[in-house]
TrEMBL record, chain A:
Protein name: Flagellar basal-body rod protein FlgC
Subcellular location, principal: other
A Pfam match: Flg_bbr_C
Localization in the cell: Bacterial flagellum basal body
Automatic annotation (TrEMBL), chain B:
InterPro entries: Flag_bb_rod_N, Flagellar_basal_body_rod_CS, FlgB
Any Pfam family: Flg_bb_rod
Organism: Aneurinibacillus danicus
Domain Flagellar basal body rod protein N-terminal as annotated: residue spans: 13-35
A single Gene Ontology CC term: bacterial-type flagellum basal body, rod
Taxonomic lineage: Bacteria, Bacillati, Bacillota, Bacilli, Bacillales
Protein family membership: Belongs to the flagella basal body rod proteins family.
The keyword Membrane belongs to this UniProt entry's keyword annotation: no
Quaternary structure and interacting proteins, as annotated: The basal body constitutes a major portion of the flagellar organelle and consists of a number of rings mounted on a central rod.
UniProt protein name: Flagellar basal body rod protein FlgB
Signal peptide residues on this chain, from the entry's feature table: none
Reported function: Structural component of flagellum, the bacterial motility apparatus. Part of the rod structure of flagellar basal body.
Transmembrane segments: none
Amino acid sequence: MGLFGSFDISASALTANRLRMDIISSNISNANTTRGEYVNGQWQPYKRKVAVIEPKTGASSFENFLQAAVSRTGMSTVNGVRVSQIVEDRTPPKIMYDPTHPDADARGYVALPNVDMLKEMIDLMSTTRAYESNATAINAAKAMAMKALEIGK
Amino acid sequence: MLSTPTLSMFEKALDAASMRQRAISNNIANVDTPYYRSQSVTFESELQKALAKSSTTFVAYRTNEKHLAFGLPSLENIEPKLQIDSSAGPMQNAANNVDLDFEMINLARNQLWYNALVQQTNGQFTKLRTIIGGK
């Protein structure tokens, strides 16, 4: 596993961050969706989604075991990052009084999604920065690989 | 004749630099991952230590890698090593200790260092070529 391994690592991070960005977009665009899912004859509001990320370990494949055994340099089994699952935020929905709303209950209250716009915007910013950092890391690895081609020229 | 000690040292240093690039990529990729511990590669400091005392050391001759090592390792035995930093992180709260600014600076530094090594390696080859040419 030479220099090209670092491309794979950064690429996995780009994928994970793009997925996180997709989830944030979904949350923002559904900030007012009262008909997220239909449960027991009643419409439930959209629930905020969160990506759970974890280090990607390639420990299960034969190649990785062999690689770790052959290189005595203490190569770690961490190989980038991945989104392991997408979970729903369990905070209760926001309740608003609006008797004219078609999804209001008998007392005139509407359950709105538990999406906090401020939180989403901050998540979006940090995800964008993380994406940029990984793109920079790919460029650095590429420059190093190009430089290595100059050896012995 | 072509495998001089200098060249093999450069080779190892280049290996260490590309391994460090991998470690930095991993740290940047996992900047938001809960419970992730940052990695680093040690090579140059070990090399410095060995170089500083290489003339006066008494080194154990080992025929098996399970034998106890005493004395300083010879230059050939120094390998880049991956280390996991278990200190508490300065800034994050999800038990993650990656410092992104530090990683980005290390990324730039490692790139320059790699370029310098490649240039020096090329210098070695140029010298060899001059000698072969005899002009």
